[in-house]
Amino acid sequence: MKKTLKIWSSLILFLFLFPVIIQFLPDGETANKPKLINEPVIVYASNVFEGNKPETETVEKKALLYFTHNHEAYKPVTKEKNGKISVSHQSENIVKFGEKLKTQLAFNEIQTDILPIDNMAEVNRRGMTYHQAYKSIRPYVEEKIKEVDYDIIIDMHRDSVDADKTTAVYKGEKYAKVAFVVGLEHPNHKHNRALAQQIKDEMEKLVPGITRSIIPKGGAGVDGKYNQDLHPSIVLIELGGIGNSEAELNRTVAVIASVIATILSDNKSQG
């Protein structure tokens, strides 16, 4: 009985000590036991650069959108919203399509800011006239372009003419036509006109007939500058007219975004 108890005690002791003993056995005796070794990983410079081109820093292009006459609206859009036809609206207006342009520009890797100013409310608050809206918004634009180095700055408007003059048809789809206004009463207006011409030409390549004209303005009865004297890359775009539908406007916005991306990319490669 004592012998049997001794055997069992020895066996239990062996089983208890076995995990400790096995740690001290040579590697050959523990061939089936995985080894956990934390070895340092060494990365050599030749491995990093061999066969790979060094990454170049990409500079994101920046755009600014603002709306001198921010309540300008489209009859079909306001009618669809609340059943009322109007050419001026607090929310269903040109700003809505500026926000869509911002989204489209983001798809084209262009960072876009929208000037957060209800300029027509400011005009009314200050007792100014409709045509003094350019004077009202000017300090806000001036301050913003001092803060950020923008590649392009767009003052978006809606023209007052009817749809028969502001609608293009291409491959069965309707587009809102675009016009450009250039103020002549400042010394660098040729730069603003050149940018407008570049946008116009590129848009015509994508959708023939989508643009109207570049309208030079100066002399008595007009603003003459349209704040374009603040920066050579300010362009005033008239997006469609009072009778264009939301679908037509959206198609044109997509074209504008694509063209701006092309122009800024070309300017970057030339620079």
Sum up the structure in keywords.
Aminopeptidase, alpha/beta, six-stranded mixed β-sheet, 8 strands, 271 residues, 16% strand, 43% helix, 2 domains
Characterize the structure shown.
Helix 4 (94-107) packs across helix 9 (246-270) and helix 8 crosses helix 9 (246-270). The strands form two sheets. This protein has a six-stranded mixed beta sheet with strand order 2-1-3-8-6-7, covered by helices on one side. The protein has a two-stranded antiparallel sheet with strand order 4-5. It has two domains: 2-49, no CATH class; 61-270, Zn-dependent exopeptidases (Aminopeptidase, 3-Layer(aba) Sandwich). By secondary structure, the chain is α/β, with parallel strands linked by helices. The model is unreliable at 28-56 (pLDDT under 50). It is globular and about 40 Å long. The longest helix is centred in the last third of the chain and has 25 residues, at 246-270. It has helices at residues 2-22, 45-49, 75-82, 94-107, 119-125, 133-147, 163-166, 189-206, 246-270; strands at residues 61-66, 110-114, 152-157, 167-170, 173-176, 178-183, 211-217, 234-239. The chain is built from nine helices and eight strands.
Spatial strand sequence of the major β-sheet: 2-1-3-8-6-7
Instruction: List how many beta strands DSSP finds.
Output: 8
The fold-level CATH name of the largest domain is Aminopeptidase
Shape summary = globular
CATH class of the largest domain: Alpha Beta
What is the SS-derived class?
alpha/beta
Named at the architecture level, the CATH assignment of the largest domain is 3-Layer(aba) Sandwich
Give the fraction of residues assigned to helices.
40-55%
Mean pLDDT: 85
Computed CA radius of gyration, to the nearest angstrom:
34 Å
Distance between the termini: 99 Å
Question: Beta fraction of the residues?
Answer: 15-25%
Number of self-contained structural domains: 2
CATH level-4 homologous superfamily of the largest domain = Zn-dependent exopeptidases
Tally of helical segments: 9
SSE series: HHEHHEHHEHEEEHEEH
